[in-house]
Automatic annotation (TrEMBL):
Record's keyword terms, sorted: Cell cycle, Cell division
Name listed for the protein in its UniProt record: Cell division protein ZapA
Biological processes per GO annotation: cell division
Listed InterPro entries: Cell_div_ZapA-like (IPR007838), Cell_div_ZapA-like_sf (IPR036192)
Record lineage: Bacteria, Pseudomonadati, Bacteroidota, Flavobacteriia, Flavobacteriales
Amino acid sequence: MSDQLKIKLSIANRVYPLTINPKQEEGLRKATKKIEAMIGQFEQNYSVRDKQDVLAMCALQFAAQVEQKSIDKEYVNEEVQEKLEALNELLDQHI
């Protein structure tokens, strides 16, 4: 437990104390900055009064990005598989 790091992150004017593996710190701090930037964008572009609404919109945005990357990766994997099969057929014809 001594290799754990205690940090505090501020999101939407609330402080969250965390005990983490030191390797996680950079990712958590970058994520916090992205969330804060997105909160600022939503508050500037929409008349949102409730922080919970802004945080829900942020969560939806991040979840949609993750899902879209998964969909894109699946499509790329299928495309690569098709090309590998075609290449394999060409090699079989020449062997």
